Amino acid sequence: MGAFMGGLNRCYNIADLRLRAQKALPKPIFDYIDGGADDEVTLRRNTSAFDRYELVPSQLNNIESISLKTKLFGRTLDLPFFLSPTGMSRLFHHDRELAVTRAAAAHGTLYSLSTVGTTSLEDIAAANPGPKMFQIYILKDRGLTKELVERCKAANYDALCLTVDTPVAGNRERDLRNGMTMPPRFGLKSLVDFGLHPRWVLNALLKPGFDLANISHRVNALEGKNMSVIEYINSQFDRTLNWGDVEWLAKEWGGPFVVKGLQSAEDARRARDHGASAIMISNHGGRQLDGAPAPIDSLRDMRDAVGNDLELIVDGGIRRGSHVVKAMALGASACSIGKAYLYGLAAGGEAGVSQALDILKSETQRTLALMGCNDVTRLHGGFIRQR
């Protein structure tokens, strides 16, 4: 264990954690984290777009103490970034979402659980007394959607997040080539790669838990139908959804309500007018529409459109603390990370997630110090310009 922790301690940035994750996981599983849709243009742009913005420091200011505290959804977070919802964490480490939520709680930031997570929302609530959000879909089975809302209320979740950019699944060609489909269709090359990762295979066999814990009971109730959980959830995506459905869900929930997957100023205004209190500016990590804009490039227009009426969260491409600082200077209320913490989870479970959070925290503090700004909430447009 000491040598393993030593390995994590030698991960000095998120890219290092990514390399450890790549070594730890069979290729089909790693590519499921790492990949995007079609030519992966948007996947790459999500991060490279940050390079178009320059930081403009202000010197000779008192930076003896640096504050990263940020208010979001009525709660105070110790970090200006939180952990976005990602599906099926059991694929990447046997401690599943529990490892992630414990790390988030230890760092005083918010954890988001996905509908297609492999841990129940009640188990997450029991493990994490800190701020939590549940990511939900409006499904054809409105009864299941309402049930999930009521369970979140009973478990004292702080916010509900509706994902709206998945009317159909994106064309994720890495997964198709690897056979990472539902059900899986692994070819010989992929099966050999699993054999080269005996630790992952052993944990998969000895520590099961690949169940989509929040919705599997619904599938079990479908008498006489031979359907996997993934097939069930895919069959439930409703292509007729509209803004009236968003308003309905906002009223059903009655608390901080986030719409995830918007990228235009006009949609930001619509979300505000239909009950949202926050938006996650997101293209689903480049996994849905290839060619969509990077979230950081949509931020200014969306902030101009809604003013201070909504909290705006930049979700996508963040690999450095300087990215967090740039987003906050451009008007973000907070940022969220997905791939960055999943690399940590795959690399070392809870310790790996903590390492990812520590890296980004340290980088954000250092960037603020070099910027001459002692409080992340005091960042403004004067600290940044587009090249």
Shape: globular
Which structural category fits the helices and strands? alpha/beta
What's the CATH topology name? TIM Barrel
DSSP helical segment count = 17
Tell me the count of domains: 1
Radius of gyration: 20 Å
Q: What is the CATH architecture term?
A: Alpha-Beta Barrel
Q: Low-confidence parts, pLDDT < 50 over ≥5 residues?
A: none
H/E series: HHHHEEEEHEHEHEHHHHHHEHEHEHEHE
Write the layout of secondary structure elements.
Layout: H1 2-9, H2 14-24, H3 27-34, H4 41-48, E1 53-55, E2 70-72, E3 75-77, E4 81-83, H5 96-106, E5 111-113, H6 121-127, E6 132-136, H7 142-154, E7 159-163, H8 173-178, H9 188-195, H10 198-206, H11 216-220, H12 229-236, H13 243-253, E8 257-262, H14 265-273, E9 278-282, H15 295-306, E10 311-315, H16 321-329, E11 334-337, H17 339-371, E12 384-386
Parallel strand pairs: 4-11, 5-6, 6-7, 7-8, 8-9, 9-10, 10-11
Antiparallel strand pairs: 1-12, 2-3
Explain how this protein is built:
The chain is of the alpha/beta class. It has a single domain, classed as Aldolase class I (TIM Barrel). 45% of the residues lie in helices and 12% in strands. The strands form 3 sheets. An 8-stranded parallel sheet has the order 4-11-10-9-8-7-6-5. Helix 6 links the parallel strand 5 and strand 6. It is globular. 49% of the residues are buried. The model has no long low-confidence stretch (mean pLDDT 93).
Quick overview:
By secondary structure, the protein is of the alpha/beta class. The chain is 45% helix and 12% strand.
Using brief descriptors, characterize the structure shown.
8-stranded parallel β-sheet; alpha/beta; two-stranded antiparallel sheet; 45% helix; TIM Barrel; 387 residues
